[in-house]
């Protein structure tokens, strides 16, 4: 198109690429970008979604009197019953949604794609946590439409800055999860489900591993259908997903073939040995 000047647009023929950088620098140094970076929107705030996943793991380790030290602000807790843990995880996720609301307000009137890299990791953590909670409740995968519905907020705002508070209007804020963020979050979910399977085997639960295995096969089939035609990040997750599925299927094999001859309290040890063997074979190959 611009063969004479080395395929550069006309405004760069004389001044070079530094012109583009200079033009964009004032916007990148603007308030939304600065607050997104300094406010850790993708860090400490939205990473609490990962802590919610740790909390939900208590569902699989709810033996009476057993204590678990969860990371961050979750603290040392005695594993209560299922409803109590789900309620507590919902409270944690509500806190994450408030952080997402702040991000949506910061990006009001801005191009979301310009600031997407600042929040994408945190949004993937949120997808992982909320989909894990949804699987615990329903044994199914939450859709991206359901997640985006949860990330639609309505607040009361004054029409003018000088308003006395009586003249208010309802304002709707949205921060949509992109398809790529959703897929990457679901891919990370498979790792949580693999750990859930390990915990279930250790507790003598012989049903959950088979439910998880069937679910992971469906997820793997979906990712295999995308293959290398999708974004690079998604195709890169496919190998990790395959590893998680292999470990879960290995646990199901141990339960099905040797479950009757091995005491339940020893199943976890047998499974951990097989898992280590798989990891060693993969590292060699």
Automatic annotation (TrEMBL):
One Gene Ontology molecular-function label: metal ion binding
Gene3D superfamilies: Translin, domain 1 (1.20.58.190), Translin, domain 2 (1.20.58.200)
Ribonucleoprotein as UniProt keyword: no
UniProt subcellular location: Cytoplasm; Nucleus
UniProt-annotated binding residues for Mg(2+): 128, 192
GO cellular component: cytoplasm; nucleus
Positions bearing the Glycyl lysine isopeptide (Lys-Gly) (interchain with G-Cter in SUMO2) cross-link: 274
InterPro entries: Translin_C (IPR016069), Translin_fam (IPR002848), Translin_N (IPR016068), Translin_sf (IPR036081)
Major location category of this protein: cytoplasm
Coiled-coil segments: none
Pfam families: Translin (PF01997)
Keyword entries, A-Z: Cytoplasm, Magnesium, Metal-binding, Nucleus
Protein family: Belongs to the translin family.
UniProt-recorded name of the protein: Translin-associated protein X-like protein
Originating organism: Cricetulus griseus
